[in-house]
Amino acid sequence: MNRGISWPALWLGIIGFGILYVPVTVMVIYSFNSSRLVSVWAGFSTKWYGELLENDAVLEALGKSLWVAVNAATLSTVFGVLIALAFVRLGNFRFRLLLSALASMPLVMPEVVTGLSLLLLFIAMEGLLGWPAGRGIDTIIIAHTTFGMCFAAVVVQSRLRDFDMSIEEAAADLGARQPYIFFSITLPVIAPAVIAAWLLAFTLSFDDLVIASFVSGPGSSTLPIVVFSKVRLGVTPEINALATIMILLVAASVVIASAIIYRNSAGRKAAAATGGSGHES
Amino acid sequence: MAAVRHFLTRHGRRLVVWLPLLWLVVFFALPLVEVAQTSFTEPRRGIPPFAPLWGFGEDGFFTNFNLENYGLLVEYSQDYLRPAGNSVRLAFFSTLICLVFAYPMAWWIARSSPSHRAILLVLVMLPFWTSSLLRIYALIGLLNTNGFINSMLLQLGLIEAPIRMMQTDFSIYMGMLLTYLPLMILPLYAVMIRLDDDLLDAAADLGASRVEVFRTIVLPLTVPGIIAGSLLVFIPAVGEFVIPALLGGPEQVMIGKVLWTEFFRNRDWPVASAIAMLLLAILALPIIYARYQDGRETALDRAEDAGRGGAA
Q: Is A56-274 a CATH 1.10.3720.10 domain?
């Protein structure tokens, strides 16, 4: 039997990919339009990129977004690895059900609810404990870490499940201690998943508009907040240029990262065939 | 260093559970309690803009519990309950439309040769990683009255006057497709890739037509993927803010946007909290269902498994 796909299905598929890619492609092309009018092509120009580099508000917001995303991604990854370890390695520990509920609900919680609820918590905490004093970069990092760790946990967990536990058991039999086993055996093996988790948490934080809008204070606007306030005023070549840079940056890093992870996993398979080795310090 | 190692060896197991558990209790569970409380308070001028629900005053312990905010939601149902209905309607049809496009796409990917499959999966994953705000912004440039599509059609002489596409149900559905299509494709792909070719061959050998094979074998076996994908699209789509805010008009107001307006523009935090509770009530069943279907594995687990196949 022909296992290919039929013509109507193929067309739906092509339209589907078109919906995903045509808007962004048109935007990228028009970011090089020398005319300010979005509908008229008036020749190739990079002047909007030049103007963007002189826009201090955008550059400042970009710096804040990067700082928030790096911190939130790092914290998310650490907590995500802990959650994954607890579920895959610790068996039936106390509060397992509670932790699994708390670690999966942020994944499906509407953003407006997460944002509003965290803001109300920060206000209540400020009244009771005097911390956090006002809202700013710190509160955004906390908010992003809270949902980022749940995504990171999912990514690390599925890798950890595939991982052959007998290597760890062998190391333990030979007298290695748990922290040593984790840092010298487990972590290197799950490294690709840890990198993927960090990247996912980074982009989730870098792209977040809704939650950051609730928990940011005056003067701590991240890039999506600045972009959103500009977008409301209409389509302009400057935002086309900014969006082009942001999307191409993310796309390039995802492609490079997946190539690296792909190569690593191929290398890991080869190493697994020859057998791994461990030693006690 | 030695002290750290000693500490980790002794308490490592406990730290592994307690650190994330404490964080999530404080920054996820407590805030939800806080929203529930605030939804029963009275608005007032000041900081914060609502009266405390309970506390200790001059006469000792007091409570200030009222249902006024929920009363407002019902009384002004045009402003609150209608957008909630809108959200469910738009999210439901968005889910259906996503399914119509995602099903053949996932099938196409699953039936491709391994090298093509890797490329197609990266093509599906890439939009998932880039900002949906920026992709929706790009869509505006396409759909605007003076946007790309209208100016192309005008220049080609296919239309006399620009077509109104923005601020319609159509623009909302396009935005939803753009944002959530990958989330529908991945779980479908995950079940389709595990489909046994021998089953399809056997059915075909026994004389089943393509339609019969699809109806009696492929469709029933991919139902778990359909359910998982639909939940992954429907749940966030109901609470969506950016799409109705940027693409929708007065007819497409959704509950997430109403919450935003109450909070940021009207500064009515108690009503915003009551709207948040309404949104959670709408989503409670789908969320619980998503969590308990297929044992412990959540819907997202599967999507990520599929995604890992693409990215890794």
A: yes
